[in-house]
Amino acid sequence: MDLAAPPSQLPDSLRLRHHLHVGGEWTSPADVDLIDVENPSTGELAGQVPAGTPADVDRAVAAARAAFPGWSAATPAERSAHLDRLHTALSARADDVARTIAVELGAPLKLATRVQVGLPLTVLRDHVALAARVPVEESIGNSLVVREPIGVVGAITPWNYPLHQVLAKLAPALAAGCTVVLKPSELTPLTAYLLFDAVTEAGLPPGVLNLVPGTGPVVGEALAGHPDVDLVSFTGSTATGARIMRLAADRIARVALELGGKSANVILPDADLATAVKVGVGNALLNSGQTCTAWTRMLVHRDRYDEALHLIATAVAGYRLGDPFDPATRLGPLVSAAQAERVRGHIDRALTDGARLVAGGPDAPVPVGGHFVAPTVFADVHPDSALAQEEVFGPVLAVIPFADTDEAVAIANNSKYGLAGAVWSADTDAALAVARRLRTGAVDINGAPFNPLAPFGGYKQSGLGRELGVHGLAEFCEVKAIQR
Ligand code: NAD
Known about the structure:
40% helix, seven-stranded mixed sheet
């Protein structure tokens, strides 16, 4: 780390990355075009990476294919030892990664350190142990059922958690015995380069992990449609997920899709309201609302509705927007001008649709220079309105009243998405009963902590398949029945 430079300015070694990582080496791309990476807090240039091409994808997929026989035949203990070395090499770079995420995403440094870097390091650590336990085999009657690595994985990831989204795919893929070509988001690619610095230091066999940065329409499409990619593991928007499915369909390639969400936070009348609101607001605003699992619809019983709105407004007032490197900052900017514009559009539409503004809104002051949007809360949001139905991916909370539990469940399930959710009640049995009725891949009761070993994924248009833990590992395996 260059101690003389201000923290928001990355040294050239971290920001000017003009190579691909293919076949175990930093190599030149086929084309000289570069992608500018913006610092969304200031609008300044944060760095540059190559604009990869289909020819680069071909080369990387060929390297991954060539590495597959060796890596898939490695013992679980060998693969686990490689992951352990990667964990050590990445841990040594934790400060640089957090700083890079604060610059290219705008996440407050404290959040970047604890969540953006802390969580994926835990996930990687977990996979050191999981890798040692594969292959998982079972006997069913006269059959030996074995799991085998699926092959070459094309991993396409979004910008909102630039390290976690990548490691949630790479760690289980490696543990299962797959080889990978990664295309990180073009908005936050610098973080992936730090990971590949660690890959180099850890001495992973050449071609096991490959990096081709670039845009979705060029590198993403080439990877998803590549005839030699066996599984496309994608995290991003539902619209792009549908496109990936279409690209994979012609060759019946496997897809794993982690997509959007519009999760409901159901606060039953006997809940500890102060805690439910505090945690609920924090969840909705985490990472400036750019979190797929964010509880963006808060459902409150009518008996406690006014009290809840008062608590929400007080909680939101404590979220200070600003420079990610200022320790007082709790919310950074949105990732791009386009994202900020989209979020402002949702706010304007909610006002037109008659929702009641409780905090923030279009006229609330924000820092100048970056893509900031004030944390905004609407009450009396109609469950069918655009704000209740569409993913905003910004710091906007919709509050909706309900009269009884059946209505709360109906409102919560009134969504094309089904990723996450929450229930609050003093009666944990009652909360569990509601949790069972929610059509989502995860539900947290009374603010229970995130479990990185639990399956993660969505019902309905929130996706296909699961990431993390043993369920995530299974996504990277084929299943074979051997009759004896
Ligand atoms: P996005 O779909 O625009 O992009 C995601 C990735 O796909 C990027 O790397 C992008 O370059 C690539 N891409 C874009 N078009 C492509 C195409 N035609 N073919 C192949 N690849 C293409 O999503 P985003 O804006 O980066 O991320 C925000 C979205 O991601 C939100 O909808 C959010 O809910 C979702 N998300 C979901 C999860 C989850 O686990 N369920 C996690 C984080 C984000």
